[in-house]
Amino acid sequence: MNKKVIVDSLMYLVVFAAIQVAVGIVAGFLRQTHEATPMLTIATSIVSGLLTIAIFAWRHWAPVSGKYINQRPWFTLFWVACLAGGSAMPLTFALEQTGLTMPDSYTQLFKEIMQHDLGFIAVGILAPVAEEMVFRGAILRRLLEATGRRKAWIAIVVTSALFGVVHGNMVQGINAFVLGLLLGWMYVRTRSVVPGIVFHFTNNAIAFFSFRLLPDAADKTLLEFYGGNMTRVLLAVAFSLMIFGAALYQLNLRLCRLPEGKS
Fold first, then answer.
1. Which of 197, 218, 231 is nearest to 129 (CA)?
2. What string of DSSP letters covers 172-225?
3. Is the pLDDT score of 36 beyond 80?
4. Amino acid 2: pLDDT
5. Phi and psi based region of residue 63 (left: phi greater than 0; alpha: psi -120 to 50; beta: remaining)
6. Which of 19, 104, 222, 226 counts the most CB atoms within 10 A of its CB?
7. Which residues contact 133 (CB under 8 A, 6 or more apart)?
8. pTM as predicted
């Protein structure tokens, strides 16, 4: 892998991290001079998302075009949403078996965002677009130029690992790494960030609306949610895996490659 590719990929990651840090510093200053509120947390997420999208689009680090959408791949995107929906419960169950838990600070941040209506703009819309532009549209795209299609798996794994690390904790990190493999696979097949954005949107929307509808469930394991009945948990996981498997099969048939650099 040539040095230019590595330098560019690291630059994209550093710029992404720098935006989060810079906005976080400003937010920290505001917390010292104003009352800390959930709205400030959400505003921080919204501003960092908008800045990320604007900078990566302006610098053409994540090339964007309407070519994929112009193909009207609506049924394919339906299966992308099904893939996201089908992966949520099995992955949650697997992570619970590890015994890992999110730090209290991350849990509190999650609740603050989810409790506010504008939280959906931050986590459901801007985060999917910004993160897919950075990690698939910029970093993965650049790494693929070096690895080529035959060794695309190397670029996918590296990008997924970086995607996991930036989440800052083991639970979200492992979750992001696994989902990053699926997101990377879809990008390699299409050279478009659109499927990834739809997947990311669906995944985050499920989390958001699940919390809004069942706020008490956020502090429960799947076993606790199903009243301590492991049979029900396993049946729910099995049903989700069937949706996941059907979606993966359909996408393997339907995802098509676009010319290099198109999104």
1. 197
2. HHHHHHHHHHHHHHHHHHHS-SHHHHHHHHHHHHHHHHHHHH-GGGGGS-HHHH
3. no
4. 78
5. beta
6. 19
7. 52, 53, 56, 57, 61, 62, 64, 193
8. 0.93
